């Protein structure tokens, strides 16, 4: 059917808001990009001259060798950290209850063998029951 004037106005308002949000996100991204990757590093403020440029390990200036790859490398590092600290624990913990049930049934079936394995020392069952 045909949309009423209120629906058209709402759709136009949503489009305008979407474009404004996109412009804002693009501006923020550009500012962060310039601050983090294109600007001068804070450590370079300490010594403005190239006095030690001939020394090994000196800070290289005006070297845009891999500067264009910095955002992609940073994104890759952050993605790997996210996978390592979020996805892997969730993935390994997804079958926790099943693994726990299997272990508990194994421990019940082999309780005597498991208890004789550690029957000496301060953690043995006899030592705890006498105290």
Task: Give a concise summary.
The protein is mainly α and 131 residues long. It has helices at 5-38, 70-92, 96-109, 111-117, 125-130.
How would you describe this structure to a colleague?
This protein is mostly helical and 131 residues long. 64% of the residues lie in helices and 0% in strands. The chain is built from five helices and no strands. It has helices spanning 5-38, 70-92, 96-109, 111-117, 125-130. The longest helix is centred in the first third of the chain and has 34 residues, at 5-38.
Main attributes of the structure:
single chain; 131 residues; mainly alpha; 5 helices
Shape: flat
Distance between the termini: 84 Å
What string gives the helices and strands in order?
Answer: HHHHH
Largest sheet: none
Structural class: mainly alpha
Secondary structure tally, helices: 5
Oligomer state of the chains in this structure = single chain
Which spans have pLDDT < 50 for at least 5 consecutive residues?
none
